[in-house]
Inverse folding.
């Protein structure tokens, strides 16, 4: 009998101590993760997005409803219709926006996703082809801390084939997304030509290499930032390479993956809005990062910001989020001390 894919004990312990929401699609990855979590007696509910792009999606939704009915789970379902152009980016934004809304409304501690080892290898190869550094190539962590919840990826060390073997051996239902077979997308092309064969040949070595690379990255790029809500402040380094690594890391936490052109723009201008969403502003000693907003603000508030050198592009978020400027100033001093 095919053995149950093994999760890390630390991850299982974390999941058992919180309220969990599983991002579910009905595909191989999330279907396998559903039953693996069940085996470990980890409590969770399901969140699913139907993009109305494929006829099969209605069957996948019906499957999710059946699973929830049989296993006493709550299903949160979001349906939408997105434009075909730049679909993957728009779908990701729609998906995570929905997840975060559910997490906030129902007080979940963790969002569980079914990213696996093949996903890590595909991402590494994509970034390698773009000329990226270690931080970008590593991609996602198994446990990633956000401001109000954690994203947990229990399968990050397990291959897709292992998950498929498990489902087939247990005769468990799953769906195959036919769009994954199309090489029009760069990631699919990398998957079919390189990544799948690489994982099949060198699975154990790849797992170990990612562990070493993650430890090396933490030594090279220690955390040098603090945050209040979605306002991040990091210590400015004399080397812009280190600065952009910190900014990359923070923007990823805020749901933005910068392109090479955007990184160059950040370094060149030292004050810009990335993807029309996130303001990044350098001053002499610090870098401020926050959602970009525009609001009418009281004159005394703007004067207080001026006195404490809060950058103009950051002020509207500080105001709308009711962030205590005294606490923000104390945070800045902590970074510089």
């Amino acid at each position: 009998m095919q053995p149950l894919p093994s999760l890390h004990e630390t991850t299982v312990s974390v999941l058992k101590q919180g309220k969990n929401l599983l991002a579910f699609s009905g595909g191989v990855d999330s279907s396998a993760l559903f039953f693996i979590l069940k085996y470990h007696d980890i409590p969770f509910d399901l969140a699913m997005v139907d993009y109305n792009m494929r006829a099969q999606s209605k069957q996948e939704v019906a499957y999710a409803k059946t699973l929830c009915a049989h296993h006493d789970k709550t299903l949160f379902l979001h349906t939408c219709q997105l434009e075909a152009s730049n679909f993957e980016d728009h779908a990701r934004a729609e998906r995570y926006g929905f997840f975060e809304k559910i997490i906030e409304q129902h007080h979940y501690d963790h969002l569980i996703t079914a990213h696996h080892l093949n996903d890590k290898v595909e991402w590494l190869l994509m970034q390698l082809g773009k000329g990226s550094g270690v931080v970008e190539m590593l991609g996602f962590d198994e446990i990633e801390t956000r401001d109000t919840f954690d994203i947990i990826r229990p399968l990050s060390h397990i291959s897709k084939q292992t998950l498929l073997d498990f489902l087939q051996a247990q005769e468990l239902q799953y769906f195959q997304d036919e769009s994954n077979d199309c090489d029009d997308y760069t990631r699919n092309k990398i998957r079919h030509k390189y990544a799948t064969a690489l994982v099949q040949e060198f699975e154990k070595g790849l797992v170990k290499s990612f562990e070493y690379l993650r430890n090396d990255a933490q030594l090279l790029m220690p955390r040098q930032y603090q945050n209040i809500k979605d306002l991040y402040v990091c210590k400015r380094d004399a080397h812009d390479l280190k600065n952009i690594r910190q900014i990359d890391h923070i923007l990823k936490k805020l749901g933005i993956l910068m392109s090479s052109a955007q990184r160059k723009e950040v370094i060149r201008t030292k004050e810009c809005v990335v993807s029309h969403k996130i303001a990044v502003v350098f001053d002499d000693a610090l870098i401020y990062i926050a959602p970009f907003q525009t609001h009418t603000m009281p004159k005394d508030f703007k004067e207080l910001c001026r006195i404490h050198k809060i950058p103009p592009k950051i002020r509207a978020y500080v105001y709308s989020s009711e962030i205590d400027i005294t606490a923000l100033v104390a945070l800045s001093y902590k970074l510089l001390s």
